[in-house]
Amino acid sequence: MKNFIFNTVKSLTLHELLRGMSLTLRYFFSKKITIQYPEQKTPQSPRFRGLHALRRYPNGEERCIACKLCEAVCPAMAITIESEQREDNTRRTTRYDIDLTKCIFCGFCEESCPVDSIVETRQFEYHGEERGDLLYTKEMLLEVGKKYEKQIAKDRKQESKFR
Amino acid sequence: MEEFLKQYLDPNFAITFSYLIKIFCIVIPVMISVAYLTYFERRVIGFMQSRIGPNRVGFFGLLQPIADALKLLFKEIILPEKSNNFLFFLAPLLSIAPALAAWAVIPFDFEMVLADINAGLLYVLAMTSIAVYGVIIAGWASNSKYAFLGSLRSAAQIVSYEIAMGFSLVGVLMCANSLNLGEIVMAQQGGISQWYCWPLFPLFIIYFISAVAETNRAPFDVAEGESEIVAGFHVEYSGMAFALFFLAEYANMILVSILAVIMFLGGWMSPFSFMSDGIFWLLAKVVFVLFFFLWFRATFPRYRYDQIMRLGWKVFIPLTLIWIVFIGAMMQTDYAEYFH
User: What is the reported pLDDT for B1?
Assistant: First the structure.
């Protein structure tokens, strides 16, 4: 009986509703956590897996030796490689395509690469306007590598002790 | 204004014309405030969820409602193949027309009212009740089970809460001895202590909760119930037809808030005797009441259907009846002055 009276009074005074409302009112004045994207950005890890790039050695030689490990390991089968023997008897790729529409950005290609040639950069703001624009060829990937080499090298160096 | 127009126009035409101008002076601000209520709502709910809400379109996102309206204007109106075409298009009109028509008797300031009729309160109640036909017909004409369920729920809910709402207004009538909205406000003259929200406090709370239920707002939005019946009665509507339902819902929200202010919070009367009365008090109070609508939506989860029915029939109706009897009894005692 005592409980009944207590509960009735509690529900008639809207006690629980008012408590809920006081909570939302407190949040109304609390700090907002929205990140306003183009102006503000969340911090990125040096291990960020974004757009792919092919790297060169400082002397300008391509790193890739066409071992095709990345092609083999790629779970989405997004990488296509064709190779040939160059005049100096080294093996190089003639074709290195990554279909970014297939790619799942797992980072296996980067992990499998014995010469740190194929890497994933921090770039994630890219787009294609037509069909096929996201099929990156060797030239395009080397271009990406050239553009962001500084950042790529810095991130690899920072992560080197964990690899 | 009539006299001014009569100098230039045919007298009969001048009367019509002056009424038309007055109607536009009400409808256009209502439409604009509906648009900005949606903006206000998104902002307030965003703030309560630690977000900042729309702030991209225009300064502080103030052009967002206009962008939304334009988007809806350009959208295709899809007509379900097996729907009843006539009723399908009649429904949005049936819900928007009463929502706007009810504004005719709302006094915005002393003598500032389009139609100063004696049964103003009854007229408003009638108009807000007609609005439910829009919902019911929309659900039926759509020929969709979700829409139909939504309209059935909405019909049952509005019938239940209309009674509680009516009863709580009976209390106001007993205090004010008038059905004229302007006279009800005038009876609350003399500062915050004279407002009817004090002697009629339980009725005020019940009126407000019933008003939330009447307008199908959260936590009583079972007629829409996104998680159960997709979007309820307006699943099949798109483009401007949908926008009309949207407009009607928000216009009704503003309307019941303005009624709450007129009945219980002293209308355009200033809360302090040293400050002058005026329409800005009415607007400030309406914004305050509307904030509660948004606050509720950000706080409470949706009621279960049977809980809504229980609350309406088993709690609100007995409570309002008890309080009406109590007021009636008190009016026969020496304390009668506190109830006038």
Answer: 65
- Please report where in the chains the tokens 């948004």 appear, as a residue: B294
At residue A72, the pLDDT reads: 93
In the predicted model, residues of chain B with pLDDT beneath 50 are none
How many beta carbons lie within 10 A of that of residue A65, not counting itself? 16
Gap between the Cα atoms of B9 and B31, Å rounded = 29
Of B268 and A124, more confident: A124
Contact B299 A20 (CB under 8 A): yes
Residue pair B161/B312 in contact by the 8 Å Cβ criterion: yes
Residue A73 has pLDDT above 90, yes or no: yes
Whether residue A75 is predicted with pLDDT greater than 90 in this model: the reply is: yes
Tell me the sheet residues that pair with A84.
A92
Interface of A with B (CB under 8 A): 14, 17, 20-21, 23-25, 27-28, 30-34, 36
From A12's Cα to the closest Cα of chain B, the distance in A is 10
- Cβ-Cβ contacts under 8 Å, A36 against chain B: 52, 55
Asked if B50 reaches chain A (Cβ–Cβ under 8 Å), the answer is yes
Radius of gyration of chain A measured on its C-alpha atoms: 27
Q: Which helix (H) or strand (E) holds A94?
A: strand A91-99
What are phi and psi for residue A83, nearest 5 degrees?
A: -135, 165
ipTM: 0.73
